[in-house]
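User: Fold this; tokens only.

Assistant: Input:
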Amino acid sequence: MAQLRCENLTLGYEGHAVLSNLNFSVNTGDYLCVVGENGSGKSTLMKTLLGLLKPLGGSIRWGEDLQASQIGYLPQQTAVQKDFPATVMEIVLSGCQGRVGRRPFYGKEEKALAKANMEKMGIVPLARRCYRELSGGQQQRVLLARALCATQKLLLLDEPVAGLDPRVTAEMYDLIKGLNREGVTIIMISHDLEAALRYASHVLHVGHEFFFGTAETYRLSSFAKRFLYAEGGGLK
């Protein structure tokens, strides 16, 4: 079942198109990596999917069983956000805001959900620690647990391993793939094409040329080879 379908989508700012006539769909359980050169429109696409920008043309259709409150989002962090003076538990619980409605407090159900997602991310011992005292990898685990409090259906991830060392990067990719195996649909922006081909089920390449299809089809295409070698990499 399609959770997301974009048809003839045109994106941009103040009437200036960045991407035009974009067509792709995401089914339940897919793992879609969005790749492309710097400035190709990846972040613009993410902001549009989140409703922060309005499409200039075309349509975005969400599945009937998916509401806006059921989309989890892990953004790229700014320096100010990394220095946020709150505890790990407070940040993870904030992912439950869409569940509490007008209630001025978190109930037992939200606290249990936060704890369960912290256990899933291996950060329960950090619950009382201040977020800004954590390492980059620990902070990303906290934000992923927060996103999971908002949804068990669809996660939007914007460069979730940016700035992490290779070991922590591998751990983060494994965590995300594990969530996908449990049934969470993933849409992830990545500059790492090799990782995209290793973990994703589908690839959306945006820029001067477009590709949408399975990761295996993309790997075998001359399009992928051109991009990899232009970036100084190589197919493995």
